[in-house]
Write a structure and sequence with these properties.
The structure is a homodimer. In chain A, 27% of the residues lie in helices and 28% in strands. The first copy, chain A, is of the alpha+beta class. In chain A, the strands form 2 sheets. A 6-stranded mixed β-sheet of chain A has the order 7-9-6-10-8-11, with helices on both faces. In chain A, strands 1-2-5-3-4 form a 5-stranded mixed β-sheet, covered by helices on one side.
């Protein structure tokens, strides 16, 4: 974040690499859309309204389609293309996007503000990107949630004045909740059965650990009702500080809670 | 550029890909330094003082060395690391950097302001990166100009209130001068023999077409003397509008004036 002339700017940068963050052969328009949405999601979690983006683009085989998806996403989120760089290079395509937004509420929400007595909330559902990716690989089924995740921009802006803590769920609900607990020095206690799913019930455990859904995870004082549609999925205790509880238990140390960036 | 609360922010993004912008096996500290310097050079050309950067980093084999070079460059140019993203991914390493600066003078210099009667100036010398790259490939000789180009930050800030047009020379002096001529709708007439070289005289024609030296190319009204050390290398005429003349002649259409981004 940057304080500039009385404004608070929020800056985010996300990178996507072919074969890691998107499939080789995927529609470049979808790749562009997702690259924008993941960055805008970071702004949403800060309650920031987008100003514009800078793109780092390694030329590939579907540049025109990429541009189409880029324009569509920028229009949807009200962001301008402010600049960037285009490079050649064979091998796996790498893309980077920087998004700049303006905070609509100060203090800007962070992941460190969860306090004992708060409730834990989630917009939307998880598991959609997981089954969407499987459908894309299988060549049948609904792929939209994986290809075109929606950044919860309006929700983030509406929630910013209410929340004690907020972040977007990009690496898995449990992993990101554990990060919020650690950052807040509090205990986030989640009720796994309360989490709404966009996949079959049998996949619940996986869906809670899968990323890419870009919903907002936030905490509110107990008496506050969120301004937007959301589900209460747990509560915050003071101890054990910095930890996550799932249905009252600490996860096993071997439990992989989400996608760890290497 | 962004107008925010009475300030003018200058934003730049440059990407570097292994095998295209740096050699496989090059010291990652040098790669980091150059990634920062090329972005800061863009700020310098706008007379902007750096605020900070966001890094998109694909993990490689020399991450600790990369961090060393990054810290060194950021300290040298007074920029903070504001954020970024780290990704895995094999194959050619791709890196992106966004730099944010604050304009020190308004209007912010651009490449479109050259006017008939102006003189054309250049800081420093060209050809150093060319022979530096050759030395690095050969394993002997002075490689510094290629590995650690200096962004002309102090010069750009000192020149910003004086210049009618300014840009940094990243893709070759002649190509970038042609771009300034086109953007300004004027004729830039360069005297090739006046351009200071950082390489043998026999390489003059190549040095004028080689990039990566990051000197500042600028125009000043005829009676103005630049605030910083620089060499007058030509003058601006009104016609033929939008063209470059080299020693009084238009370059042959087959003449490659610099490095064209593909």
């Amino acid at each position: 974040m940057l304080e500039i002339g009385g404004e608070t700017l929020v800056l985010t940068h996300d990178m996507m690499v072919e074969g890691v963050h998107f499939l080789a052969g995927q529609d470049p328009a979808d790749v562009a859309y997702k690259l924008v949405a993941t960055n805008i999601s970071d702004l949403a979690a800060k309650g920031a309204e987008p100003i514009g983006v800078l793109l780092g683009y390694q030329l590939g085989t579907g540049d025109a389609r990429f541009l189409e998806g880029l324009r569509e996403a920028l229009a949807e989120y009200g962001a301008a293309l402010l600049g960037g760089d285009t490079v050649s290079g064979d091998g796996r395509q790498a893309l980077g996007l920087t998004a700049i937004g303006r905070a609509t509420h100060r203090p800007v929400p962070s992941r460190s503000g969860a306090r004992a007595g708060d409730r834990v909330w989630l917009t939307g559902r998880v598991g959609g990107a997981m089954v969407g990716l499987e459908a894309l690989r299988a060549g049948s089924g609904d792929t939209l949630a994986y290809r075109r995740p929606r950044a919860r921009l309006a929700q983030g802006i509406a929630l910013a004045p209410q929340v004690s803590a907020m972040m977007d769920v990009s690496d898995g609900l449990l992993l990101d909740a554990a990060r919020m607990a650690r950052a807040s020095g509090a205990c986030l206690s989640l009720e796994s059965g309360a989490v709404p799913l966009a996949c079959p019930e049998s996949r619940r455990a996986e869906a809670l650990r899968w990323g890419d859904d870009y919903e907002l995870l936030f905490t509110l004082p107990a008496q506050i009702v969120p301004e937007v549609a959301a589900t209460c999925i747990g509560e915050v205790f003071s101890a054990p500080a910095g930890t996550l509880l799932i249905d009252g238990k600490a996860p096993d140390s071997a439990d992989i809670l989400g996608y760890e960036h290497r």
